[in-house]
Predict the 3D structure of the following.
Amino acid sequence: MTRLRLAAMSVAVVLFSSSIASADPVNNVTNTSTSGSPGLSGSITGIASDNTVLYNGGVSALAFSTHTTGGYGGDSQILVGQNFRTFCIELTGGLVGDSNTAIETVPPAAAPPNGYGYVQGGADVILQRAAWVIYNAGSLLSGYSANIVAAATQLAVWDIIYDAGTLAQGDVSNFGNGSTGFKVNSGFTEGSASAVTQANALLLASWNSGDVKLGEGIVFRQGITYNHTTGQYSSAANGQTIMAAVPEPSTFAIAGVGALGMLGYGLKRRKIS
């Protein structure tokens, strides 16, 4: 009986801790490095929802290395000292190395708070589709170089954010979603391999005949701090909001399964006795 109560209490503690951890985004400090980052450069054009040219010119599509170096580590999937392969969400905005960063899991990644938006429409499922692409790009493009994979992944993410969303397959070669769009003008090739072609292959794979494939990821809102007491974001800077995929299950979920196993074991022993 004592073991049964102990197991039940363990489950309660795990579930309660998990609910607390997922209630707020993490307030952390990250270091994002471009050193040794694979990727390619080219020219792109982005059109905003008000039909103005958001960006038109040269840009590099890189896979950054982001490392959490301190701060609050209460989220079950984001611990201090972790490394993530990250990609840009916006076409504009500078990359901030060491910065206060509000970090959110996707899902649930709430809609843009207090006017600090990072994705058109703020839809969670758009970010989930981007997370799926980031996670699966390596295996889907296994025959290509790291440069092509990184560039194709970044181009596909940008097209999902600015053009395809969850309502279209997407094509990084053409504008396509009314007054909002994204287009690659030139570049992003390595020998005979084209990152544009492979980006469209990733968009097709994530579209799946009309059914959007969704993944789990992390959004790093650079230059933004989060107050856990007031629930407010502040100190918005011109940083680049970046995103990573989460390949492993939640630490709390693993612990929860273990605790449930203990509970089942206790019940089985109780029936036998």
Remarks:
- The chain has one domain: 25-249.
